[in-house]
Amino acid sequence: MGLMNCKPAIAIVYSSVTGNTAELAGMLLECAQKRWTDVRVLGPREFCQEKIGDFDVVLVGTYTWGSGEIPHDMQRVYRHFENADCKSVVTAVFGTGDSFFAEYCGAVNRFRDMLFDQTQLAAVLKVELSPQEHDLARCEKFVEAVARRLVPDGIKQRKAT
Ligand SMILES: Cc1cc2nc3c(=O)[nH]c(=O)nc-3n(C[C@H](O)[C@H](O)[C@H](O)COP(=O)(O)O)c2cc1C
Description:
The protein has about 160 residues and is an alpha/beta fold. It has a single domain (about 10-150), classed as Flavodoxin domain (Rossmann fold), CATH 3.40.50.360. About 35% of the residues lie in helices and about 20% in strands. A 5-stranded parallel beta sheet has the order 2-1-3-4-5, sandwiched between helices. Helix 1 crosses helix 4. The protein is globular and about 45 Å long. Flavin mononucleotide binds next to helix 1 and strand 4.
């Protein structure tokens, strides 16, 4: 089977306390499933450094805590990416926050900067608190940007057999 027929492996790893980021992750899952068949949703504890290489794409979702901080459970995910050799993995980061706070979606910013260095960062999406209907179009664009970055040659050779 040629590389053009490969099915990319997509992971959505996110954390949510009050449900806003979970809702956004659900919208992104719907968009992703329109394009790809192998889309898995993982909690931060299910996602370890060794698993990063299993995926062609990782979509990272986080809310923001403290004063623009990454929440505790997502700090593990951050460290996994920091320590992994994952330059070929396409990533995108999404999250919800509250612009009442000094650093709106600070955790998304922190992931964005690290993933830009460590991976092929394709897109960033920030949503104010609970996602609204108009955010669906933004989700579609976010997934489209990921798909554009995922050229067939970038999909791992192991899936070609
Ligand atoms: C104690 C606390 C601190 C927060 N700090 C920030 C912040 O610095 N920046 C921000 O954008 N949002 C901040 N938020 C807002 C949350 O990130 C926002 O409500 C988010 O949508 C929660 O996501 P979840 O529903 O997925 O848990 C804070 C919320 C709480 C309760």
